[in-house]
Amino acid sequence: MYASGQTILQNRKPCSDDCRKRAGSWQEQTMGIAKPRYLEQLENYLRKELLLLDLGTDSAQELRLQPFREIFEFFIEDFKTYKPLLSSIKNAYEVMLAHQRERIRALEPLKAKLVTVNEDCNERILAMRAEERYEISVLKKEKMNLLKVIDKKNEEKISLQSEVTKLRKSLAEEYLHYLSERDARKILIADLNELRYQREDMSLAQSPGIWGEDPVKLTLALKMARQDLTRTQMELNTMKANFGDVVPRRDFEMQEKTNRDLQEQLDSLRADYEEVRKEHEILLQLHMSTLKERDQFYAELQEIQRTSTPRPYWTKCEDVVAGGPERWQMLAEGKNSDQLVDVLLEEIGEGLLREKDFFPGLGYGEAVPPFLQFDGTVENKKPTRKEVVNLLKDAWKERLAEEKVRSHQPPWPNLASRVLQRKENFPDFFFNFLERRFGPRDAMAWAYTIFEKIKLFHSNDVMSRFYAILMGKMRESVYVNYKEIIAQLLKDMTSADSQNEGLLSIEQFSTILKSTFPLKKEEQIQELMEAGGWHPNSSNADLLNYHSLFTENEEGQSEPFVQKLWEQYMDEKEVYMQEIKQELGLELQHEVTLGRLREALMNIDPSLDRQTLRTYLSQAFQLPETDLPEEGNEKEEDIMTWLQVVLERLQASDIRRKGPREQESAS
Q1: Rounded to an integer, what distance in angstroms lies between the CA atom of residue 396 and that of residue 93?
Q2: Following DSSP, what letter does each residue of 287-333 receive, concatenated?
């Protein structure tokens, strides 16, 4: 009956332009017609069924589909003409849902297997690390043994060199001795030959048979015989002179082999000597540099001893601080002298604040924050430190609740939501919060009281961060994102606690930290684990109560683990800011353009996404993101400001590295 008065559409494609035009005109015609009663009954039935369902169970989504199935079946049964088409559509969706359920059931064992494989891989990695440590210790021992062998070889080399020197000296002496002996032997042989010739002459003269020979012939024969003898003697002397020092070939080869072995040993010793000499030179250089550092440190020590004052005797403060020695011991535990000075100043300042009954108004000057603009005197409410911390926590809860409502509000539907989405600045919110809590009359007094209180306590995390955000030294997003990181870390630890006992092993704790903070170095992860209660000498099987890491005392002071997270965040931000400054390469009094800052950010952090980059640029130049020109636009060069101002704005905002540098990722 509802559709009886309407024009029956012809068979056309659902997405055609003509169909859209007809549908649009039909909708314009039916805007004034009331909703059918049957449709209202179906909507009321669907709403009631959804309210009766328990959506907190695992099967909530399956149950949520059941009312929609029933509504669809009502349509099929009531509209007979479209029943086949609607039934086929319903069957197709049911088949697809059944297929998806089967695939999910098939993937469940794979998930368990993946967890088992991950644990096996972790065990293998730990075993391989243990083997590597053992091999390193063995190699170190072998290195020490080889160094001892080298020292022994060097000593043997020195002794062999001394022996070679002695042998060369004795060889030279023997050589001179043999030369003199050879010359004496030659002279002796010549004398013997002369005596032999004389004796032969005498025997020939005395022989009776010789008188019968011709004396001339005998003289000539004697002369020729003497010439032959002289020639033979010369040849003999030449042979002895040339080959007198020749040794047998076997002895020569043996000596040559010995000489070759000695030469190889000498070369090896020379190479060892060169290595030892180089190491000695390196050690000398290290020794000289160590001496210079020692002298420098000694000079610095003398200067410090000359200019420094005696170390204060902090136990004197026990009688001054309220609470006596026990409270002072609690305040001074684990703090250095600089931190103890802050604690002492806070205690003194708190005592002075308690003595004041009224605060003088600061007036309405431009330098005065809006929530402190007042003439006259205001009352000092004198709250305790615990009351101030609780009040600040309540303010944060209300602020985060407003932010959550604003994030779920649809964009500009009407004037009321438009006013809701307009975010007020933090000082105005703080004063409005005090008005809602204490009324308009006491809001200004509480504002002055809390301001003086949080300005004094620098060691309290809640107060110091609230003061920094209130005075514009830190953006609100820094605190909000930090709290989200802490909440996500606690959520990951709770998910890893399968037994829901509140305990985690050291290995699980380390794995969660590395997965939550993938850019942190191994030393930073080690610091977080030690701050959480792990010690290097403890076993990996020790259990850790992770809930105790996120607790706070009555005065809002966090545990060492959360404090170490904040310290590392500030250190990482400082390093990031130094990299930006080095990349820009400008002095603080120079101007920097928007395009130059965009290029510097992309160079030091290539993993920055487009939205985060635009957020950083918007915060640096104090421009809405909608007013920022696109990359490569000529208008980027027209937007510029001082580098010091840019760095101060970025320092106050939540800026952090999104990924490693290119060389770090390559390594």
Answers
A1: 47
A2: HHHHHHHHHHHHHHHHHHHHHPPPPP-GGGGGGTSTTHHHHHHHHHT
Indicate the DSSP class of residue 402.
H
Q: How far is residue 14 from each of residues 9, 23, 217, measured CA to CA in Å? A: 11, 10, 158
As beta bridge partners, residue 374 has 363
- Report the Cα 165 to chain-centroid distance in Å: 60
Taking the C-alpha atoms of residue 659 and residue 667, their distance in angstroms, rounded to an integer, is 14
Instruction: Pick the closest to residue 506 from 454, 466, 543, 556 (CA basis).
Output: 543
pLDDT, tens digit, 9 for 90 and up, residues 264-313: 999 999 999 999 999 999 999 999 989 999 999 888 888 887 776 666 76
Q: Which residues of 401-414 are buried (b: 16+ CB within 10 A; e: fewer)?
A: eeeeeeeeeeeeee
72-76, 430-434, 555-559: which has the minimum mean pLDDT? 555-559
Which amino acid type is present at position 101? Answer: R
Between the alpha carbon of residue 314 and those of residues 273, 322, 342, the distances in Å are 59, 15, 13
The CA distance from 481 to 479, in Å, is: 6
- Rounded to whole angstroms, the Cα distance separating 66 from 46 reads 10
Side-chain-side CA neighbours of 277 within 13 Å: the count stands at 6
Burial level of 663, CB count in 10 A (0-12/13-18/19+)? exposed
Which residue pairs from 504-507 have beta carbons closer than 8 angstroms and sit at least 24 positions apart in sequence? 504/543, 504/544, 504/546, 505/540, 505/541, 505/542, 505/543, 505/544, 506/534, 506/538, 506/539, 506/540, 506/541, 506/542, 506/544, 507/122, 507/540
Residue (of 626, 596, 600) closest to 614 by Cα position = 626
Residues 48/71, Cβ–Cβ less than 8 Å: no
Burial 144-173 (b: 16+ CB within 10 A, else e): eeeeeeeeebeeebeeeeeeeeeeeeeeee
204-231: string of b/e by CB count within 10 Å (b at 16+)? eeeeeeeeeeeeeeeeeeeeeeeeeeee
Please give the average per-residue pLDDT across 69-85, as a whole number: 86
Six-digit token pair at 385?
């430190």
Instruction: Give the residue among 20, 74, 70 at the shortest CA–CA distance from 49.
Output: 70
pTM (global) more than 0.70: no
Structure tokens at 609: 């996404």
**Lookup: tokens for 512:** 């969660």
Q: Mapping DSSP to helix (H, G, I), strand (E, B) and coil, where does residue 499 land?
A: coil
How high is the pLDDT of residue 478?
87
Q: Tell me the pLDDT band of 472, cut-offs 50, 70 and 90.
A: confident
- The neighbour count for residue 646, using CB atoms within 10 Å, is 24
Average pLDDT over residues 484-507: 86
Q: Which residues pair with 358 in a beta bridge?
A: 379
Name the strand (E) or helix (H) holding 442: helix 440-456
- What's the pLDDT at 629? 76
Q: Which residues pair with 543 in a beta bridge?
A: 505
